[in-house]
């Protein structure tokens, strides 16, 4: 007998596993995986550097299992990676491999040598051996892949709002388990969001204006007043005179003049961004918890969260995972907000360097830096690489169908606000959602188009070839 039938009641803890290095088929236990435990994990009674464990014991270490599956020789690179691992410094001559048994000691899940006399302790000189690799090469990983997939589906199903489905018609891989889905941003060290008491609302509006008639009909709405986008179409003649005089002289007070409402409040595009906001990068101020208008006010869209069904799918041309909507989206329709860790500018620079300058998950929250007199270093950045929501899987296109907009509920906090994605044209169901990673303001359109990738390299940036497939493709991401 080669191994024990594992008990599923104790699960291997992901944090205690340094690496999974091989797999084999046990006639009784099924697929088994060779765990190299973290060094600190070895004590007197648990001095067990490597041990075999069945898939039913690995429910809590899907992340490590996924890392191992990703190195398997489906490709030449996977094969090479495994060869390199074989000769890594960890595989010294005194390494022992056990048919491991899980136990709980002092609250810790530990691997110990099986007491079953039928199960031999296996001492071998080099692991992973050629024989072990050879066996692994002919052994399926179906159960492990199913475990990883089940875990990712569990996580996707716990995302609030309409369904987020998963499709991979390209290969056997699953989205990364090393990524954690979050519903709210995480504030990093040194990051401060203004206290909720600093929020002010539109107190002159009437309660429950949202029942068919909303703040858009009030010339007194403080939230719209703050946005200060004057709506010339709705101005009465005397208001128009006043407005024209303010424009002529550069002096005067625009308060009380009708303001442009960000969303359609009726008709087939109700809730969609109006063209004025869609075409410009003007911040959107939504009503908030301190406002008098009530929860149904038509200015509350982003704060109600995602309302569309999305699908996470594997792209067929090496762009990793992508996102598409399962429903038809209208031009100006809100899709979802970007989520992540809000970190300081200094921390973002540190992460960029440590991450080989792969900056595609970082969003600067610097929209109000100039107007509020802050330096770039004082502003914050959202990092969605390790903690975030489904929007961190949206790919880049040089001819995108979505765009990101600044949305604020607290007009007194210029450093923490929402980044919200809206459709910039009607989008058919199952069409991939994309946005331009170069978040250009109106008027900037031609600024960077001619940047030479070599210049970018010299500046320390690593250009990534763009595979968006558009005729307007700029050839590189972030150029
Ligand atoms: C924010 S992530 C998008 C999700 C990513 N596809 C994934 O699977 O995690 C950005 C990364 O996706 C890839 N990507 C996105 N758009 C791309 C494009 N147009 N061409 C090539 N790679 C792209 C690049 O690797 C980029 O660094």
TrEMBL record:
Region (Disordered): 72-94, 438-467
Pre-SET domain ranges (all copies): 201-305
Start and end residues of each SET domain: 308-438
Biased composition (Acidic residues): 438-452
Compartments (UniProt record): Chromosome
Record keywords, A-Z: Chromosome, Metal-binding, Methyltransferase, S-adenosyl-L-methionine, Transferase, Zinc
Post-SET domain ranges (all copies): 462-478
Keyword Transmembrane helix: no
InterPro entries: H3K9_Histone-Lys_N-MTase (IPR050973), Post-SET_dom (IPR003616), Pre-SET_dom (IPR007728), SET_dom (IPR001214), SET_dom_sf (IPR046341)
Pfam families: Pre-SET, SET
Protein name stated in the entry: SET domain-containing protein
Organism of this sequence: Phyllosticta capitalensis
């Amino acid at each position: 007998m080669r191994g024990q039938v594992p008990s599923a009641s104790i699960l291997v803890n992901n944090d205690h596993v340094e690496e999974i290095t091989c797999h084999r088929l046990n006639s009784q236990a099924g697929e088994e995986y060779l765990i190299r435990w973290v060094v600190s994990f070895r004590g007197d009674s648990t001095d067990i550097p490597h041990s075999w464990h069945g898939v039913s014991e690995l429910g809590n270490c899907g992340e490590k299992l996924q890392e191992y599956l990703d190195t398997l020789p489906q490709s030449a690179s996977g094969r090479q990676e495994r060869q390199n691992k074989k000769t890594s410094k960890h595989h010294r001559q005194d390494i022992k491999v056990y048919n491991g048994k899980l136990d709980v000691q002092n609250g810790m899940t530990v691997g110990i040598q099986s007491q079953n006399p039928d199960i031999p302790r296996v001492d071998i000189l080099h692991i992973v051996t050629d024989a072990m690799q050879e066996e692994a090469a002919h052994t399926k990983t179906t159960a492990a892949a199913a475990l990883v997939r089940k875990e990712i589906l569990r996580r996707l199903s716990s995302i609030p709002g309409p369904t987020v489905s998963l499709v991979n018609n390209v290969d056997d891989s699953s989205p990364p388990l090393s990524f954690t889905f979050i519903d709210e941003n995480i504030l990093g060290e040194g990051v401060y969001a203004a206290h909720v008491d600093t929020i002010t609302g539109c107190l002159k509006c009437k309660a429950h204006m949202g029942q068919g008639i909303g703040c858009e009909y009030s010339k007194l709405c403080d939230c719209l007043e703050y946005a200060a986008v004057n709506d010339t179409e709705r101005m009465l003649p005397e208001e128009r005179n006043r407005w024209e005089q303010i424009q002529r002289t550069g002096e005067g007070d625009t308060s009380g003049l009708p303001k442009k409402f960000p969303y359609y409040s009726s008709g087939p595009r109700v809730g969609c961004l109006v063209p004025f906001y869609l075409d410009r990068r003007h911040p959107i101020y939504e009503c908030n918890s301190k406002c008098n208008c009530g929860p149904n006010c038509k200015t509350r869209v982003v704060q109600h969260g995602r309302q569309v069904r999305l699908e996470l799918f594997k792209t067929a041309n090496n762009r990793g995972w992508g996102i598409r909507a399962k429903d038809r989206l209208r031009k100006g329709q809100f899709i979802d907000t970007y989520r992540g860790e809000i970190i300081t500018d200094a921390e973002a620079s540190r992460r960029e360097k440590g991450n080989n300058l792969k900056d595609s998950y970082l969003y600067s929250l610097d929209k109000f830096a100039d107007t509020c007199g802050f330096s770039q270093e004082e502003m914050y950045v959202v990092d969605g690489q390790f903690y975030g929501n489904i929007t961190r899987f949206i790919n880049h296109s040089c001819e995108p169908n979505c765009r990101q907009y600044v949305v604020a509920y607290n007009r007194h906090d210029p450093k923490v606000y929402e980044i919200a994605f809206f459709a910039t044209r009607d989008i058919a169901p199952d069409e991939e959602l994309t946005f331009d990673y170069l978040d250009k303001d109106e008027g900037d359109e031609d600024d960077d188009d001619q940047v030479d990738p070599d210049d970018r390299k010299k500046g320390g940036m690593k250009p990534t070839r763009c595979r968006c497939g558009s005729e307007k493709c700029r050839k590189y991401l972030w150029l």
